[in-house]
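User: My notes are a mess, but here's the protein and pyridoxal-5'-phosphate's SMILES. Can you give me a structure?
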Amino acid sequence: MNRRRFLTTAGTVPVAAATRRDGRPDFAAVREDFPRARLSAYFDNASCHPLSVHSATALHRYIDWETNEVGEPWWPLWAKARDESKNLFAKLINAKPSEIAFARSTIETESNLLNGMNIQAGGGNVVTNDLHYTAALYNYKMRQKAGLDVRIVKNRDWVTDVRDIERAMDGKTKLVALALVSNVNGYLQDIKAISALAHSRGAYVYADIIQCAGAVPIDVKAMGIDFAACSTYKWLMGVKGYGFYYVREDLQGTLAKPTQHSGGVQFNYAPWTREPDSSREEVLFNPVTGPGRYEVSYPSYEGAIAAQESLKYIHALGVDNIRAHARSLTDRLQKELPAIGYPSITPKGNESSICAFTCQDPAKTLEKLAKAKVHVAMRFGNKMRIAPSVFNNHEDVDRLLAALA
Ligand SMILES: Cc1ncc(COP(=O)(O)O)c(C=O)c1O
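Assistant: No problem, the inputs look usable. Here's the predicted complex:
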């Protein structure tokens, strides 16, 4: 499809087309919004979700403006999209907009939180687990080598037992940091039990929510999550390099100290000012307050614009409906793949959109799938991760099962 055709067709598909009269989403219409679904049975949404025509159209508009227009005033034109993306994300996780900062990467944000908490200086420790993302675990290994007390809880049969977390904790535990949904096998942590445990011991909870925001209902208040982060290129259906950082309001600037800053310095001496104030420093430091204290420079406007559209889309569908749709597909995969020789490493009844299976011959499995134009992820050697989203359907599952039968 050439670009002009794309823009005209894409522009004519309103979000409302994704909703039936009875108020329930029409997932066949949703599939039409994701052109990639026509090309293959794409199940690798836990790596990177395709863009909908709506986000793509919005991005094309932005690129056109960046390329062909100056605009007056030049950038606040897009500030509305930026702020709306934040408000829509806050609503998605039941936070206040004043608890959300723009972020660039989930992993970078977790690292910034650790820098800001400076747990090592107080002799505290961090508890995490082996179902967390590998780059996060590397960050902990690096800090461990520099002297931070890090405790990595091992899974038992691909599940983290809350009692193991409890055993790893002591009076000096300051943070329990986990991926709410694991990228390894989609395991959804028993977050309420973990938060209750952490809080009862005076510790706080960080949740990496990149594998669930947009796909699994999240309520940071009800779940007892103190800090959370994600970027938008997975279940939020946006692009890389743009995301959100949730910091519970009462912890901002106190427990979680900012570690980097936006601009805003003022010089209190000539020639910068004609009337220096001798009672004050020469270079003034008045950092911003609120969630902006965790932001550096400008957020990606490309990211904000894509996320504004995709978050509107996710809200229009409803996360409960998205969950129900994915559940019908993962339930089938969980039942039928083990029967043809692919044992599951995702617990039964797990409430996320990701499931994973072990393969005897990963190379052969990938070859068969490629031939049938089915995309999955093969991770950790022989673990096949399948992550259906809103545009996948039972024909996609048929195609996958037929290829592997
Ligand atoms: C659980 C989890 N956390 C973090 C990341 C990386 O996130 P980011 O690119 O936003 O740093 C991934 C990417 O696959 C992931 O699965």
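The domain at 1-13+25-52+318-405 is CATH 3.90.1150.10 (Aspartate Aminotransferase, domain 1).
User: Great, I'll file this with my notes.
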